[in-house]
Write a structure and sequence with these properties.
By secondary structure, the protein is mainly alpha-helical. Helix content is 54%, strand content 0%. The chain contains 2 helices and no strands.
Length: 70
C-alpha cells in the first residue's frame, strides 16, 4: 500500500481549501450570502478598508525579515 508524502498531503489540503474559497465579486453569490453590490455602500467601504489594512500589515510583517512565514 502506497503512503502519501508530506508534499502530496499538503497539496491535497491546498486544493480542498481553494475549493472552499468564495468569490466575493461574483455575479452570483453563495447561497444565503448577499452579492457585493447588494451590500450598503458604507459596508462595502468598511470591508475595503479592513482588507487594505490586512494586506498592508501582511506586507509590513513580511518586510521586517523575522524569518517566519505569515
Amino acid at each position: 500500500m502506497a503512503r502519501k508524502t508530506t508534499a502530496s498531503v499538503s497539496g491535497d489540503r491546498r486544493k480542498r481549501l481553494a475549493a472552499q474559497q468564495m468569490d466575493l465579486f461574483a455575479r452570483q453569490s453563495a447561497a444565503g450570502a448577499p452579492s457585493w453590490l447588494d451590500l450598503p455602500k458604507d459596508a462595502r467601504q468598511s470591508l475595503v478598508d479592513l482588507m487594505t489594512r490586512l494586506i498592508l500589515e501582511h506586507v509590513r510583517t513580511k518586510t521586517m525579515g523575522d524569518g517566519h512565514d505569515h
